[in-house]
Amino acid sequence: VTGTTAPAGPAELSALQAALSAEHAAVYGYGVVGAHLTGAALAAATGDWIAHQVARDRLEAKLRSAGAQPVAAAVAYRLPHPVHGPAQAKSLAVILEDRVSAAYLGLVALPGAAIRAFGAREVIAAAIRAAAWRGTTVAFPGLPAGALAPRVASRERREPG
Amino acid sequence: VPADQTRRAVLAATAASLPLLALSGCKGVGALATPPRPAPDVAVLKAAIAAEEVMIARYDAVITRSARLAGSLRPLRAEHQSHLVQLRSRLIVPPGSAAASPSPSSSRSGRAPAGPGREPAGAAAAISYLQAAERHATSALLHQLIAVSPSLAQLMASVAASEATHVAALSAAGGTGLP
Description:
The complex is a heterodimer. Chain A is mainly alpha-helical. Chain A contains 5 helices and no strands.
């Protein structure tokens, strides 16, 4: 709603819809996460749950203002693994945030400056939430491991690591 | 003629897999007098690489001084090393061009404006010194990624996100707890 003056192209709409799908999944998933936590962890999950609802609403508004119909949330989502206790709940939160980071990285690949900046800020927000649940940081939030493979072996094999 | 075909195949493969080289080398690789001008990505990449090198030097300075902090800082330093390796792997420029070899002056000029100055004494001061550097690096990357190619922008956004998470990790390392 704010800042974007250029009309959204199909690539932008599709990336926004992908981010919205990830936010829908996160809103659903944090409901499961929170159900298995208590105390400070529950408070943190509730805060993140609200953050994803706000992000979802913002994406829906962006899509509507671009004349597109926002994708709807699914009635239920298949969880990546069973969640029966706090450790599994925290692990689910990490997975949800990683998927949200990856979806917002899709916006960073678009040509528009405003949408790129918006995507990058959301990648950072998701990475910070993921790091809090994971308990450690990672070098490349949101990027699949395959994206980091050397492109030209002859040249990059010399690099350490 | 087979040699020529091989060469053409190499050039075609290079152009397909290396957008940086394809952009900066479009004036012709054979022009000896005028090396191709580096693409915009190259200037941004070199700045980002210089910033990571300075960040690693800052971590090294604190790790050397503080045995108490060293254990929790080393994993963060290792992530910066991974950032550096990935950024360097994107810096592929035609041999012989001015951008091919990093000049000492350019890396030194990258050192001057990049955030806080001398590393401070004391664990708490060292932690806030590194946190300020991480915040500075994050906002610099957010600024720089606007103008670069899509795949480099994604790498820089991911690096910026990693550096943003280091701020809270540094608080934990300093024993001040998560903010």
